[in-house]
Write a structure and sequence with these properties.
homodimer; alpha+beta; 8 helices; DNA-binding
Chain lengths: 243, 243
DNA sequence: CGGCTAGTTGATCTATATCAATCATCGTGG
DNA sequence: CCACGATGATTGATATAGATCAACTAGCCG
């Protein structure tokens, strides 16, 4: 079963561009080693993290910053097909942590091999560069949500986004999907208090827009949810409608 | 005077890495044409914006998203040495606008030439990729500010960041610098109301931490300002202390 | 059964928004 | 030189979104 590690990555990329066979092969040859991480463990303590870039293959992880008085802000959620630390190939960043929110499976790209590959294949470089640009677009959208959307709209927007991101990598079942975040985690994503997240979830549940119990999200009224969030999936750069 | 267009870019990059002469030459040859934009004009209406990538050489510009009910969120501020639309080389994004906040001078990089350059020079590609990664790091820090810093801390953090970014490109005078944003603009950066921005400015002025009148910022007590903001410049990736 | 974690709810408090008025500055045309 | 309008800054009064505190419930796992 070791041959299929980059498949969620490739699934995601194919929603965006045509991927020639040669690039696919490059990615396969780059991502062969596999490693696991338990739920709750910090990514930095992973033994390999100094020498390789990690592609998340299964599970959900979060990037966050911790502040002096214990406040935490999650700045990104990683789902299968996402690189967790591509930037580390170039920039040393000590100020952010990554944590596995559920048991995670990673495919490793050796730094030296990646460096070599980017030097010889402008195509792959382009692909990875674009991927990081789209991650940035996602963050930009989060910024808009933080600044100018209400708590309810923000929450709705987050769910819309995650639904599509999970769907393109085949991690949804109709309008349902698993999302291993506690309400406290969600609060740290949205920049809200846990209590308020709970209330907003209740509101959406009450209006029969969506439910989120334990770790299971079900979108009951997709149109309404999009409407509340003013969700426009353009920034995810898919070539056609996902849902 | 046309020879010096990329100089703020190079100044910025040199705070981060050693730039070999060959790369410097590549950048010079890439960025030769010059264009102006009036304060207040939208970047998309610029004639060249379909065929070239634009490096801001002089002035300040803002990237923002407009929402249905008129709310606006500024997601990035561009200062001399910043590419305004590097992403457009790869991704079509219709959902964000860029506006010149003061009269702006741009150096243009022809898309085709840039494409060609990135195919032949892995070094330049790396440099530009890293630059976009650091832009993303800045956005990440903005996200933290939005989510988990108070209005006052957020404002202080913004000023700290802009001070350093302007300083490395030689746009500061001691602890003073020009920042052509109205309080309404600042509100749209911070995700606050104009009125509240005004109050926070007053508070910082009253405590003799900084002043911001008209378009002139003066930091009176740098240590205190950093303290309020919990500012750690690591994310800007400079190799040594700027201030 | 007990203790842990996550979710739920209510009461109260506070940061920030909104509304509205005033004031300062500056460019323009008379 | 002055009147004028426009734009931006400042301030106060009031409203509200969301935080904080505290209690209680429901699973779940040993």
């Amino acid at each position: 079963m070791e041959i299929d590690l980059p498949s969620p990555l490739i699934a995601k990329l194919e929603w965006r561009h045509d991927i020639p066979v040669s690039m696919r092969e490059d990615l396969f040859s780059l991502l062969k080693r596999e490693r696991l991480l338990d739920a709750g463990s910090d990514f930095k303590q992973a033994s390999w993290c100094g020498t390789a870039c990690s592609l998340l293959v299964e599970g959900v992880a979060a990037r966050y910053k911790l502040m002096s008085n214990g406040r935490r802000q999650i700045t990104a959620l990683h789902v299968p097909g996402d690189f967790v630390d591509l930037a580390s190939q170039f920039v040393r960043s000590r100020d952010y942590e990554v944590v596995a929110l559920s048991p995670c499976r990673f495919a490793l790209a050796d730094r030296d091999r990646l460096q070599e590959l980017t030097e010889h294949s402008a195509g792959v470089t382009r692909l990875l560069w674009m991927d990081s640009l789209i991650d940035a677009a996602i963050q930009q959208e989060w910024l808009v949500s933080m600044g100018r959307r209400s708590a309810l709209e923000h929450l709705a927007h987050l769910v819309c986004e995650l639904f599509l991101r999970l769907k393109v990598v085949g991690r949804t079942d109709g309008f349902s999907f698993r999302l291993p975040l506690t309400q406290a985690d969600v609060a740290d994503v949205l920049g809200l208090s846990m209590v308020h997240v709970n209330r907003m979830l209740k509101a959406l549940r009450g209006d029969e827009v969506m439910t989120w119990t334990n770790q299971n999200v079900t979108i009951v009224n997709w149109g309404r949810l999009r409407e509340i969030a003013e969700f426009d999936p353009d920034y995810l750069a898919f070539r056609r409608e996902v849902a």
